[in-house]
Every structure is written in C-alpha cells, then in structure tokens.
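Example record

One chain of 711 residues, shown exactly as stored in the release files.
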Amino acid sequence: MITKAEILRVLKEEIEKPIFDYELFKYLEIDKNDGDEFLSMLRELENEGLVLKTKKDKYGIPERFGLVSGKIQVTKKGFAFLLRESYGEDDIFIPASELDTAMDSDMVLVKITKYPENGKRGEGKVERVIKRAFDTIVGKFEASKNFGFVVADDRRLSRDFYIGKDDTMGAESGDKVVVKITKYSEQNRNPEGRVVEILGKAGTNEAEIQSIIKMHNLPEEFPNKVLRQAERIPEEIPQDEIARRTDFRNLTIVTIDGSDAKDLDDAISIQKLENGNYELGVHIADVSHYVTERSKLDQEALKRGTSVYLVDRVIPMLPRKLSNGLCSLNPHVDRLTMSIVMEINKQGKVVTQQIHESVINSNERLIYTDVSDILENQTEGKPHLAQYDYLKDMFTTMAELASILRKSRELRGMIDFNFPEAKIITDEEGKVIDIVMRERRVSNRIIEEFMLIANETIAEYMYWLEIPFVYRIHENPTEEKIEEFNKLIHNFGYKIKGSLEDLHPREIQKLLKEVEGKKEEALINKMMLRSLKQAKYSPFNDGHFGLAAQYYCHFTSPIRRYPDLQIHRIIKESLQGKINKNRIAELETIVANAADQSSKQERVAEKAERDTYDLKKAEYMADYVGEEFDGIISSLTSFGMFVQLPNTVEGLVRLVDLHDDYYEFDEKQMIYIGEHTRKVYHVGDEVKVRVERVSVEEREIDFVILEHKAL
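Predicted structure tokens for this chain:
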C-alpha cells in the first residue's frame, strides 16, 4: 500500500495542476481494495495542511496556490503568528484584523502579504481554517437581562462568547462554565456558544482546577468499556505464567519513591561481585502483560499518552485497578516485571546486560526521605528507621554505584540542571498551606542514576537489533538560541566558549559548574533550559543532547507513560523471536504514531501542570498583598520585568510602575535604561519588592520595586 509521504511527493513533483481524488487514485495505480485507506490518507494530509482541497473538490499543494499552512499562535494582545517548521525562526506575523475566524492553535492556510526582508518577519492573512484546535472553551459566565456572555480563561481568546438566553443551562453570574462553540468569531462579531457544563463558582478550588482540566481536554473519567475490560483482569497470576519467566523472588528487591506515590513502577536489586563490579537489576512493572495491543485499554492509554500530575490530584493513564493495584510493585506480593540486569564496572561502563520477562516480590516500599536519612546518618529521633537495618549494606552499595555512574556521565558531558523546584502543600479543601522546595537528596539521585543507565542500555541494545523502536531524543540547540543566551549571561560575566554551531553539551556543563552555589545559579539554569529544544519521542535515534547520550529511551515508567509501554511490547516480541519482516513494517507505523501522540500529550500535560502551579502560587500570594520580599530579576520584556522570589513564585513589575524615570527596553542588551538617570536594570539584579496586586482568576501577581541592588 502507498504511503502519505509518497502521495505528497507525487503531488509536489509529478502532478502539475489540481487533480480529483479518483484521478490521483488511478495515477498512483492503487489496488481497488485499498481505496478507503487511500482516501483516509488524503484526508489526513488535508487536515495536516499539507494538501489543499479546492472548492471544486480537487487536490493540490498549498504553496502552488500562494498559500502556506501551519498552526496559529494567538497572543494576549490579539495578533498572531503562523508557526511553521520550514520557516525556522521566521514565523509569519498575522495582524488581529487578518485572522478571519481563526483562533489559537487552529491549523490554517495563510496567504503571504509581505515577504521577510532585512531581518523583519513576513506578514500574512488567514485564508482558511483547516482544522479547529478545540470546539469547547472554559470561562466565567456573566448574565444580563436577555442573554449571557462568557469571558474565556484562556486570555488568548480575546473576544467574549455570546450565549443566548435559552443556552445558559441556568448558569448564574460568577459561575465557571464549559461552552460548546456554535459559531466562530467573524470580523466585528463575537463568537457564539451554549453552556454544556457548570463547574462551580469562580475562585473555589474545585471550579478552578476543573477549569484547567476542561481547558486542556484532560479525560478524568475512563469510558465504561475500558473499566469493564480492566475489571475482567484476574487478580491472581497464573502459575504457568510465573513458570515461563525468570524468577527473581529470592532476591532482595526494594522500591524507593516519594511518600505520596501510589503507582510504583520500578524496583531495584543490587550486589557487588567478586571481581569488584556491580550487578544492578532494574525491575519494571510489566504493564504490557495486562494492556495488550489494540485493546480498549491500549487505545485509551495511547489517547491519554501520560498520567497528569496536578497539584492536588493525578489523572492516570491507566485505570486505578492497574496503576495502583495489579501493575504497581507493592511489597510482599508477586508482580510481573520486565527486568534488565547489568554488570557495571568501576568506570561506570555496562560490561554485560540481560533482559528478562520476570517475576519479583518486593521486600520493602521505601521512601526517599528515609533512605537519605539512613545514608546521611540522620537517624536520631527516627525509631521507625531501625526496621531497615538489614538493608543498610544494600543502600551503601547503591550509593557507591550511583556515584560511579554520575562521575562517568559528568565526564561524558551530561548537563545537570540544578534549579529549585517548588512543592505546593495543600489542605483537604485544596487551599495552599505552604510552598517549599523539593528535596533532591542522595536517594533521589540514586534512583535517577539507575533509571538513566537502564534507559540508555535498553536503547542501545534495541538500536543494534535494527527493530522499529520509540526513542527519547533531545536535539542540539540552534546557534541563534545559544547566541541569545550568551548575550544574557554576559551581564553576569559568563560566556559559553567553543563553536556555537556544533556545540558540545560539555561547554554548557562547564558553565553550570561555574555558577554552582552562586546567587544567580537558579536563574542561569532556568535561562539555559529555555534556550534548549524540548526533548521528544521519535522513531529515529537522534541522540540526547542534554544527557550527552548517543542512545536513549523511556523504559522505566510504563504505568504512567505510553512510550515505555509500547517499547516493552517490542522488547518482549524480540525476546520471543516473534518479529519478522511483516511485523517490522507494521511496527514502523505503530512507533511513529506512538511517538507523535505521546509527544503531543506530554506538552498538554506540562501546560496543565504549569497552569495549576500558577493558580496555586497566585492563591498563596493573595494572602501576602502588601508584604515585602527579596527577589531577583528573572527576565525583562517590553512591558515589564519579572521578579522571582526564593520560593519560585514569580511576579511582574510593570514598566509603568517604575516612577523614578522613563525607562527604555534595550532588547539586544536585555536591559532597562533610565532616560534621565541612566539607571540600569539587568536580569539577575537583586531587588526588594512589595506584593501590590494578585488576581487568582488571571493567575497574575504584580510587584512594585522598593530597593534595587545592581549586579
């Protein structure tokens, strides 16, 4: 059967004018039995904006019609950009007046009205919306006598939604609601919709969290058919299944996780060998035994892509019977696992590895804090730790090996971002009690190192088998981004050395070592992270820049990440000798789809998690209006500067609130400079601020500067 890539190539290179689908079908000499699949691929290409269907139902390439396709990114000010990979950094500017009915994240066709020149962006106008990003919105309802309107939570949707009086579902002013869009906005007309769900009063914890869940279209409830399939899975493991696996139940095996973790998907065994090497066993929940390919459970897991960890709840990828029960490596019960057992030498090199379908019985469910306390000799006043005395030697061996692995990774050039991560503590009603820094102590680092080496070893092993696989890749940063970063850190007296065109992660590692322990450490870590590309899943092994790793994948969390589940299936099929030529062809499509969907859903989850953190930080700071704090300038924009407090809360000092002078924003040097006083504000300057205003609804915190200490 022909592929989408081949259809696209023929339309680009061989067909000189728009063509009907049946004409293209004949031209490509496709078998009649494959007609439906051909039409499906053509529709997909149309939805992706790669092929255009004319009003006369003919197909062609958008560029031939003077159009370009891409995703619209609308700003809070109303104008937009067309994001298009082939344009690199030169996204196309779309004035608000030229958006037609397009909304944020819609796939559109744009006509270029002004081509890029002299370093300026090109401009365009939306000609057609190809695919809507969403058909519902979430916002605050306001009632009037004969109708209502909804102000969207997403500030990029600048127009209010008109709601007819018969479409309100009885919503009252101040309610958070979900609106089904019935008519998209046109010039001088508001979009229209009808209320389909009332979430509660704006400002209450449940209504605000539900707003975020609905805005990102996160599925809280599992379909009944998925739950029924999960319920049919027996609790007991059949003896014939245990008999065919490698039995590791006689080993001392433990899990080490956070105190609130319920989905325990990794366990560890370790011993020191007579030759001085270490034997490390990483045992991962065998979710693929229960979630079979193309089953209802599998389809739902792929749709979700990942578990989503919000401040006060988890939206799991799998039903809780599996995620917290059958698959979770709870102590003192038999559990099916996929194990990789590695012999690692004193230089941190994996000498041999063996992959097993296995069964384990974990001895203990340990938490990071307890293991760290034991290793750091902080056991005084903690009598409960005595129960783990029999594991002390194991912990010591773990720490030894983790240290070796870390040194090996550092020598290779791995980038280790060490910036504070907030942990938001809430009460039973969801109100924020405190914001504290997450600890990254010795036991956290141990598990981190063991998971990294397992992921790398699996990826390299599978790469050389030349079997389709889902890799975790991190592409090299662009030269432009690194140049921009260099300009920012110049204010602190630092510089990334070496070739920016072919940058080695070791140069970034050197810089991060240089700033370690200094007041600007967290800030430079954060700025550096923003300068790098985002990691993603891919069917191609393109390496991992941040880890300085040639081979990498995600193998260790199949309960909460779909790529891990998918590659477990492939590994098992490989071990069982089931992969033939036909299966390879089938897997190529499967892994490409899994990589793409998982990358997309990972971004959605990240945005939702960030939104809940912003919400809770605003809620917390609402109690501190008028209070003073020390902070550091974290970024500068044309409209104001952001100041970060030690607890990671970030607030805006608006340019109009700097009353001692008129300030200009110098984008090249990334500074504010006073018109008369010549006073300068840099990123990294220490300031004392007062909390001036907090809007929980808008998740915005405003500061005013009281004192300024320049770098």
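Notes: The first strand starts at residue 19 and ends at 20.
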